[in-house]
Amino acid sequence: MFTTSRHVALLAVGTLVFAIGGCATTPSAAALVAGEQATIEGSIASIDTKPWTYDGNAVVVLETATQGQVAVQLPARWNLCKAPQVEVATMAAGQRARAIGTVTEDGALVVCERVEHRLEAVN
Description:
Blueprint: H1 5-23, E1 37-48, E2 58-64, E3 68-74, E4 96-103, E5 109-110, E6 118-121
Parallel strand pairs: 3-5
Antiparallel strand pairs: 1-2, 1-4, 2-3, 4-5, 4-6
């Protein structure tokens, strides 16, 4: 097999197209914006209900594919929330879950202020 200048040119163009395609990135998911409503889904990385003992927010950390780890805050005073109570006792690390809530300034998600807010296990 012999190489012609046309073959070399085609090979160079093909290599260039491949290289450019390899550098392309997939669009990132929408960032969580403070004050906005968001829905996230992922695996439960950890559950910490100790803050409830001193009237703080319990924290369930979800490991998501698009936002990384997101802390989902569950207020101690559910009677002041419009959201249904979360059955944390039925959840475990490694389980898939979905959270709907309001994004805080530090990128956490608070499940409380709206009826549609929730943290629930998903299959």
